[in-house]
Structure formats: structure tokens, C-alpha cells
Design goal:
This protein has twelve helices and five strands. With 438 residues, the protein is of the alpha+beta class. Among the domains are: 170 residues, no CATH class; 133 residues, Heat Shock Protein 90. Strands 1-2-3-5-4 form a five-stranded mixed beta sheet, covered by helices on one side. A hairpin with a 5-residue loop joins strand 4 and strand 5. Helix 1 packs antiparallel against helix 2, helix 3 packs antiparallel against helix 4 and helix 6 packs across helix 10.
Length: 438
């Protein structure tokens, strides 16, 4: 017995295959009980049948028992039960089998045309037998009501034995199919809700991942570039501290300025994050998490650097001792704030990589305005052998972060070594974000 109170058909040996076709023990007990009652009824009626037909009484009893017990098969073969009841109608037996068989047939999934044909056969058989019995009974007495009574009585008797079970069976079958349909629909809705919940959790996790990635990129861009320049200036300060105090003082001032700029950018970033904290908590509402990420990105883009600040960025690298050339082509357009910030960050990270891995190398920064897009390229030549590496730590996330920024806006990013032994970073960005273009 299961937790819901229903019997397990497999555990009790009652399966839907072979000789055992009942799904529940209660159904088996009911059908066997009806079969026994029908067999006893047919056996009693078989006594009268054998007497009228001039047959031995045991033959009529055995025939009635076999015919009546066919009712046990009503769930498996309802058509056979109805046919047997129609066949035994002339012998005036099997009334219970006929009523229950018609009910089961109408409630089953048998085609309606076949159900109607068998119902008509049962009705005609009952009508004929009833008509014959009434005519003989009425004709044997004087003062009988006449033929009209025989006809009406036969019709009412035949319809009374066939119409109610058929109508009740049709109602029961329709109700069962409706309940099954509603149950299937409820199961389908439950599966869809479960799938939607899984997708919502995936979207929430995706939003959190995107937010963490964006924060990591911003932290990397802000800290790595400023700190790299500070390390370069600190090394220069250490080298000239005793030989050239004036230059050492200048380098110290530059280190202080860069430190203050780094702190300012970090403070702005933390302010954006704090403003989005109250709405980020519930993981069950993925759109809120997505909205936080989008709002934080938009706020950071509005407050972030733009293309006009490239001169200052290049000037800082020049102050650190790098030979940098800035070339600008075309007329600047009205770019989206996030597009300008991405272009700035790409140039910033490329110059940081030159400071880290190709100190002393000549570098060229090209910026081209092409109407609906902006293209930029940072290329450095081979560095001096003695200054090939500034000794700055590198996590390998710079190029990956640049690629993620550019592709997120629908742009193209390419990077790799040059034939001359240097390195080149190129990117093409659309003038607006994909959402705004849509």
C-alpha cells in the first residue's frame, strides 16, 4: 500500500498485463463479486430455460454459471460481455450482466459508433423478448388491454433496461477523461513551473556572475594601471633619489597624484556598489539582480572615464619614461558613455601591459572615428634587453578582460605579437550599446 492509501498493483500481483488486469484490489473484488452474483442469477434463470427448452436442468445451471461469470471480464473485454448478454437475452437470463456490461462499455474508450451499435442490438433484443412474453401473457387472459399495451410495455421495458446504464456510463467516462485531462494539465503546469524556477535560478546566478566579473574588471583596470605606474615611478625615484633630487621630487609628486587618482576611482566604484546593495539580496527574483547589474554598469559608465581623457592617460605613461605616440583620425561622434569607457579601459590596460612586460619599448596609440564605430589600436615595439620586464605581478586577466568588455558591446577584439617582436592590441566598437541599437 502506498503513502496515499492506494494499493500498489505490482506488489500485489495485480498488473495490467496477462490474466491480471486490475489496477487496484478494490476493482478486482468488485468485479469478482458482480461475476458471482451474475452467475447465480443466470444459474437460477437457467433452470426455467432448461425446462422450457426441454433440456436437462444441470445443463441449464452450468450454462447459466458460465455465461454469468463472464461479467468478471467487463473491464478487459466490455464488448465481449455485451455480446454474451445479447446472446443470452432470448433465454431470459443475464439482466444484471446486460446492465453492468452496457454501463462499462459506455464508460470505456471504445469508439462511440461501436458503442451505439451494441446498444441498439441490446435494445432490440430486449424489445423482442419483452414483446413476445407480454403478447403471450396478455393473450392468455380475457379482457386484456390489447396490442397497444404490449407495444408500449415492450418499448418502455427495453429502454428502461438499456438507456439508464448507457447514459450513466457516458457521463462517468466523460468525467473520468476530464479528470485525467485536468490531472495531466496540472502535472504539465507543475513541470513548467519547476522549469521556470530552474531558469530563474540560472538567470539569477548568471546575473551574479556577470556582476562579479564586471566588478573584477573595474578593480583590475583601476588598480593595475595606477599601481603599475606608481611602481615604475617609485623605481625611478629610487634610482635618482641621490643623483637628481629635483627629478626625484617630481617623481614623488607623480606617485602621490596617481595614488590619489586610484583612491578616487575606487571610492566612486564602491559608492556605485553600495547604492545597489539593498535590492540585490533575493536570489528568487532574477530580474532584480539583472537590474542591479545593469544599473551598476550604467552608473559606472556615466561616472567613468571617456575618450577625451586619453591625452591625460598617455601623458602619465610619458611621465613614467615611456615613449608614446597618440594619433587621432576622423571627427569624434556622440558615442555612448559605456562605449567611451570601454575604449579608454582597453587603451589603459594595453599601456599597463607595456609597462609590465615591455618597459622602454616605443608605443603607438591610434584612435580612428569611423562614423558608426570607433577603432583603436595600441602597438609597441620590442623592448630593450635590459628592461624587458619590470618585475610587476601579472594574473593573465588583462587581455581576457579587454575581450569581454569589447564583445559585450558587440565589438571585435584582436591581440597578438607583431612580426617586429612587439605586441598589438586592436578593437572596433559600435557607437552605441546593443540594447540601444535594438
Amino acid at each position: 500500500m502506498t503513502a496515499t492509501g492506494a494499493y500498489d498493483a505490482t506488489a500485489t500481483g495485480l498488473t495490467t498485463r496477462g490474466w491480471w488486469w486490475w489496477e487496484r484490489r478494490r476493482s478486482a473484488v468488485l468485479d469478482v463479486g458482480l461475476g458471482v452474483v451474475s452467475a447465480l442469477e443466470c444459474a437460477l434463470e437457467g433452470v426455467d430455460f432448461s425446462g422450457q427448452a426441454g433440456l436437462p436442468v444441470p445443463f441449464g445451471v452450468v450454462f447459466g454459471l458460465l455465461a454469468g461469470f463472464v461479467l468478471v471480464l467487463r473491464r478487459r473485454w466490455p464488448i465481449a460481455v455485451v455480446l454474451v448478454s445479447v446472446a443470452t437475452t432470448p433465454a431470459q437470463m443475464g439482466f444484471l450482466m446486460g446492465i453492468v456490461g452496457l454501463y462499462t462499455l459506455a464508460a470505456s474508450d471504445v469508439p462511440r459508433r461501436l458503442t451505439g451499435a451494441l446498444t441498439v442490438m441490446a435494445t432490440l433484443g430486449t424489445l423482442i423478448v419483452t414483446f413476445v412474453r407480454l403478447r403471450h401473457g396478455v393473450g392468455a387472459e380475457d379482457g386484456s388491454p390489447g396490442p397497444l399495451f404490449v407495444v408500449l410495455g415492450s418499448v418502455f421495458m427495453s429502454l428502461g433496461l438499456t438507456a439508464p446504464p448507457v447514459l450513466l456510463g457516458l457521463y462517468t467516462g466523460a468525467r473520468r477523461r476530464l479528470m485525467e485531462s485536468l490531472r495531466e494539465r496540472a502535472d504539465s503546469l507543475e513541470r513548467e513551473l519547476s522549469l521556470l524556477a530552474d531558469r530563474a535560478e540560472e538567470r539569477a546566478e548568471w546575473a551574479r556572475t556577470e556582476e562579479r566579473t564586471r566588478i573584477a574588471r573595474e578593480m583590475h583596470d583601476v588598480v593595475a594601471h595606477r599601481v603599475s605606474l606608481m611602481v615604475v615611478h617609485a623605481a625611478a625615484l629610487q634610482a635618482v633619489a641621490l643623483k637628481d633630487p629635483a627629478k626625484a621630487s617630481k617623481n614623488a609628486a607623480l606617485v602621490g597624484d596617481m595614488g590619489r587618482q586610484a583612491l578616487t576611482e575606487l571610492r566612486e566604484m564602491l559608492g556605485v556598489l553600495r547604492s545597489g546593495e539593498p535590492v540585490r539580496a533575493p536570489a528568487a527574483v532574477p530580474l532584480a539582480a539583472v537590474g542591479v547589474a545593469a544599473a551598476a554598469a550604467a552608473a559606472a559608465a556615466e561616472d567613468g572615464p571617456c575618450l577625451d581623457a586619453l591625452d591625460v592617460l598617455v601623458g602619465q605613461s610619458r611621465a613614467a619614461g615611456m615613449v608614446v605616440e597618440l594619433l587621432v583620425e576622423g571627427e569624434a561622434g556622440a558615442y555612448d558613455a559605456l562605449v567611451e569607457q570601454t575604449a579608454y579601459r582597453v587603451v589603459q590596460e594595453a599601456l599597463t601591459n607595456v609597462h609590465k612586460h615591455a618597459a622602454g619599448a616605443k608605443t603607438r596609440v591610434r584612435l580612428a572615428h569611423r562614423g558608426a564605430e570607433v577603432a583603436l589600436q595600441v602597438e609597441n615595439g620590442p623592448s630593450d634587453a635590459g628592461a624587458a620586464d619590470a618585475g610587476l605581478p601579472s594574473g593573465g586577466n588583462g587581455l581576457l578582460g579587454m575581450r569581454e568588455r569589447v564583445t559585450a558591446l558587440g565589438g571585435v577584439f584582436v591581440s597578438g605579437p607583431t612580426e617586429a617582436g612587439g605586441f598589438r592590441v586592436s578593437a572596433v566598437l559600435p557607437e552605441r550599446r546593443p540594447a540601444e541599437r535594438a
